[in-house]
Amino acid sequence: MSKYTDTAEKMLEYIGGRENITAVTHCVTRMRFVLSEPAKADVKAIESIDIVKGTFTQAGQFQVIIGNEVSTFYNEFVKIAGVEDSSKEEAKQAAKQNMNFLQRLIGHLADIFTPIIPALVVGGLILGFRNVIGEINMMNGGTQTLVEVSQFWAGVHAFLWLIGEAIFHFLPVGITWAISRKMGTTQILGIVLGITLVSPQLLNAYGVAGAEEIPVWDFGFAQIEMIGYQAQVIPAILAGFVLAILELRLRKIVPNSISMIVVPFLALVPAVLIAHVILGPIGWSIGSVISDIVYSGLTSSVGWLFAAIFGFAYAPLVITGLHHMTNAIDLQLMSEFGGTNLWPMIALSNIAQGSAVLAMIYLNRKDKKEQQVSVPATISCYLGVTEPAMFGINLKYGFPFLAAMIGSATAAVISVGSSVMANSIGVGGIPGILSIQVQHMLTFAIAMVVAIAVPIMLTIAFSKTKMGVNAYKRIGK
């Protein structure tokens, strides 16, 4: 008998029995259930189990926070429950039955950007490091940069742009690949489509405005402008879905004997043509309108109000999954304006959520069980991953979540009011300062201090009010 046998049996009982489990998998710290009838799960009973450190529901999955021993417990649970081991992808597919149309739409958007986020984060760190060595006058009495005084650092600066350019200028390749991966179509065709949007043969998107003459493909009866879509998001998304839809439809009607030859040709060639004739120009226009609205709103006389609303509401957006939309907007802003004033507020919101948990660590310093969740959650928040902090601690009590939202809004007003811009998306926490444009780093640092201090002070203050007392009573402390 395993040391987790009794615990696993309790979990199975409280979750609603084997028949209530559609799929189950796990990640680094959490069990992820897709339940036939979520209402059958006894949440309070589950949270009373010693090994359980919290629960929450997201994207149609009921998630139980276990901790570092989750894999061992998971193996015992699967054996006792008599259910099959599910992959994360299978669990995601099963979870869709519990999601409405909007949740599914956001889920699709998340599935596109999630695989390429590691590259975007690396690119942000690289551009940030190039900022430090290439734009900050730190040598010879503050008159020269490292690049100006050292051939080694000049070489590093030039070399790193090779990676930065590959990530951001050739972003459409990653997007079209991610779409083909998600749709279950031929991934190499997605990659090829992406390359046709950024090919060196085309006029670079950044040079269109100043070009005296735009080259064309001349077919005699029609001409197509040879314009690239470097760093463009929406044209790549539209083109990627057209390719995937064409391939899926063709698979249904083309005989298997000739499918390998006919389907790729009849899917890729029309998709590339449609992308350059129709979808590219339309997508560029849509992206420009979206980025202009966001940028104008943030830089207008009421930009502080927009910032306060966004800073306050961003954490609730994370709960719904709607925050994935900001990735596309950030990337579009970077393409249109050479930076983003939206992303700094996201980094500040993450810091604020971590700071609220930090205050809860102090308030519940004698609760060793809770610290197993709160300490790692604070660290992950400060490094840009907020879910463990939000679902494991802040939403559980309520008042820390509100304190973090207020702190985030305050810091966002400072950021936008000072016109802080980031060169790119980066690590969405304290290291995010490396992605901020050099001239704004000091102001952003002040906003970071506010995002740390305000949530801590408010969380401690709220804990002494009726709101805090009721929260402790509800949890049974």
TrEMBL record:
It is found in: Cell membrane. Residues 107-477 form the PTS EIIC type-1 domain. One of its GO terms (biological process) is phosphoenolpyruvate-dependent sugar phosphotransferase system. One of its GO terms (cellular component) is plasma membrane. Its main location: membrane. InterPro entries: Glu_permease_IIB, PTrfase_EIIB_Cys, PTS_EIIC, PTS_EIIC_1, PTS_IIB_1, PTS_IIBC_treh, PTS_Sugar-Specific_Components. The keyword Signal does not apply. It is a multi-pass membrane protein. The chain crosses the membrane at residues 105-129, 158-179, 188-207, 227-246, 258-282, 302-322, 402-422, 442-463. Keywords: Cell membrane, Kinase, Membrane, Phosphotransferase system, Sugar transport, Transferase, Transmembrane, Transmembrane helix, Transport. Residues 5-87 form the PTS EIIB type-1 domain. The active site is at C27. GO terms for molecular function: kinase activity; protein-N(PI)-phosphohistidine-sugar phosphotransferase activity; protein-phosphocysteine-trehalose phosphotransferase system transporter activity; trehalose transmembrane transporter activity. CDD domains: PTS_IIB_glc. NCBIfam families: EIIB_glc, PRK11007.1, PTS-IIBC-Tre. This is PTS system, trehalose-specific IIC component.
